[in-house]
Specification:
Distance between the termini: 78 Å
Shape: flat
Order of helices and strands: HHHEEEEEEHHHEEEEEEHHEH
Number of strands: 13
Helix content: 25-40%
Strand content: 15-25%
Strand order of the largest sheet: 7-13-8-12-11
Structural class: alpha+beta
Largest sheet: 5 strands, mixed
């Protein structure tokens, strides 16, 4: 029989290849690149600044019902607090908040479980500490209500006067992101995706570097202000130095061809207390000054959270103390 006729008959009977089963080298590289994955998210518009960016650069706010009073709370979606090192994270929003932060919510408010999302659309705001600070502590109460304007278009039936908005929202989001980063790093350490770096350059198959600050034997928490950030790029590791990488700094790998990888200053990003907690949890790895995360598919999500926290703290004077 004519092979062209046979191919035409069998064309619709042949099983299609599974999605992702056959990827080109470039497709596999992009799939395991946290920055490419972030840019690949859908474009959304910030309802406060009208800036259009990939969804990964924004915070998604939704109305969530209080588990006891059923009152609608406007909270960020997907940032539930997690136990930094628990096997089954407790999705609670009862996180430590700075004493001097403004608290408009009732004292002692807790969400013992994942809050139930109310039906209706959501709104977006830039994932920046300064933007949430302006919405929260601005001169006008209507600053944060711009997020409600986008939600009310869905006819949720919720009145503006009934919505509860936390006046420490910028601090809350910062704490939630820090806890999630600690959880991801602890999980990677348990799966042996993190190792120590003793030289100035990163070894082969390194995705990023984590600078913990100078190793010390004192169990007392170290203030984040004790760690300075270098201004030059790429960053060069100096054992025993208190000068860590600046925001968006990079380090050069030893492998050829050499490439630049992100370097994160954890005392600046997490704060001194959280860094000491992380050191204690990492065990022997906590005694080292510099760690590296291996370039593996299983570490991509942790790299995304590290980049998200660093981007959130990009505004001036937003480091955690």
């Amino acid at each position: 029989m004519d092979p062209v006729l046979v191919a035409a008959r069998e064309r619709h009977r042949t099983r299609k290849a599974r999605p992702g089963a056959f990827l080109s080298p470039l497709q596999r590289k992009l799939k395991n690149n946290p920055f490419a994955r972030a840019l690949d998210t859908p474009i959304r518009c910030c309802d406060t600044t009208l800036t259009r960016l990939p969804k990964s650069c924004l915070l998604n706010f939704e109305l969530m019902a209080h588990p006891d009073t059923k009152a609608p709370w406007l909270l960020p979606k997907g940032l539930q607090a997690v136990d930094p090192f628990g096997d089954d994270p407790d999705h609670s929003l009862n996180v430590p908040i700075e004493e001097d932060s403004l608290m408009a919510s009732p004292a002692g408010f807790q969400l013992p479980s994942v809050p139930r999302t109310l039906p209706g659309p959501s709104s977006y705001a830039l994932a920046r500490h300064g933007v949430l600070g302006q919405l929260t502590r601005g001169s006008k109460r209507s600053n944060w209500t711009r997020l409600y304007d986008a939600i009310k278009c869905g006819k949720t039936g919720v009145k503006l006067g009934d919505i509860v908005w936390r006046q420490d929202m910028d601090v809350l989001v910062r704490e939630l992101l820090a806890q999630r980063v600690m959880h991801e790093i602890g999980d990677l350490a348990e799966r042996q995706y993190i190792s120590a770096v003793k030289e100035g350059t990163a070894p082969h198959q390194s995705a990023c570097l984590l600078w913990l600050g100078p190793a010390h034997a004192s169990p007392d928490p170290v203030d984040a202000e004790d760690f300075e950030a270098t201004t030059g790029e790429p960053w060069s590791f100096q054992p025993g130095s208190t000068r860590g990488p600046a925001a968006y700094a990079s380090a050069v790998t030893r492998s050829l061809p050499a490439r630049a990888i992100p370097s994160y200053n954890l005392p600046k990003m997490l704060g001194g207390k959280h860094t000491e907690t992380l050191r204690a949890r990492l065990g022997e790895l906590g005694y080292h000054e510099l760690l590296r995360i291996r370039s593996k598919p299983g570490t991509v999500e942790a790299q995304e959270w590290l980049w998200k926290l660093q981007g959130y703290l990009a505004d001036a004077n937003s480091e955690v103390n």
